[in-house]
Amino acid sequence: MSAKANGIAILGTGLAGLGHAGGRSEQDIIAQAAGQAVAASGLALGDIDGIITSSLTSPWWVMRMAEYLGIRPRFSDSTMFGGSSFIADLRTARLAIAAGECEHVLVCYGATPRSAPSSTAINRMRAALDPQPYEHPYKPFNPVSSYALAAARHMHEYGTTREQLAEVAVAARRWARSNPDAFSREELTIDNVIGSKMISDPLTVRDCCLVTDGAGAFVVTGAEHARALHARPVPVLGIGHAHWHRQISSMADLTVTPAVESGRRAFTEAGLRPSDIDVVELYDAFTINPILFLEDLGFCAKGEGGAFVSGGRVAPGGDFPLNTNGGGLSFGHPGMYSIFLVIEAVAQLRGEAGVRQVPGAETALVHGNGGVLSSQATAILSNAS
What we know:
This protein is α/β, with parallel strands linked by helices. The chain has helices at residues 26-40, 61-69, 85-98, 119-129, 144-158, 162-176, 190-195, 223-229, 259-270, 288-296, 305-308, 327-330, 338-349; strands spanning 8-19, 50-53, 75-77, 104-111, 198-200, 203-204, 213-222, 234-242, 279-282, 363-370, 375-382.
């Protein structure tokens, strides 16, 4: 059967513990977000028979969360693809529902890296769990150093400027200033970005995502049943996922990511082209990311990403709405971020985004990044019935 015949739709969504969780645990804020998502889906927690979740630090996280929520799922999955996980999870949920393994899948994630252990401690833990043999001897300040390599290469090869990188951060901040849930809302200029503390040349601290707490959740069900549960389900028209490497030193080309493949698959399934998309939500852990992904997903040619984001084009009032909640650069970033891309896209497609609402938004593309430009997951959503 085709992907469309086995279609899925997103029902309710939930957010909790954004910015600083106030002493609540990861499980606490995930449970709060999950409760909101389930209730907004027209379901009860007992109706959830599938759960997909993952953690940066716990290999048994799906069992812990099912226990904490008090559910006994028929289907569960905890495959972790880094920050792209929760978009890749849409494909897993679709396969499970199509196979009859379950009917209603809860996708959830949360973490408290701001209020819990320091980022230094977390990075040490991650390095111990996932050593990089070709890079570890040189002691790079990862992940920033890896993304700085990609940025430097793009600048060298295509003439991308420092100001163009900064445009990404400034646009994200302008969107965040219209979002009461965003962590960073103070004014930000290109000069502020370039003049801030250098982290890994050419990336300064304002080129890097925030470190915040936060949790998100959404519920997925079969498209044919979605309308009976929710007045405005959001169909998932296409999904693509690809990974070609794990370490930055194993990339064949530092300016080309597996988004080329994940995007092509998603657009093919959806039967759409980049020009058909009204709202774009891209994983912006670093300012180079959206530039690379816009190129690889086909919104502009390779090497043109810097010019594409310039002149306020991707900021409020521009003709290309990008990262409308403020992104990982200004909204929040609790370790892995892609679940918030999905939640923001659903809000835009339902016309529920308040003053940052994109008028007439009917289609949205969400794209997640995991590892060091490694795992790439793309999904295309719609508000069509």
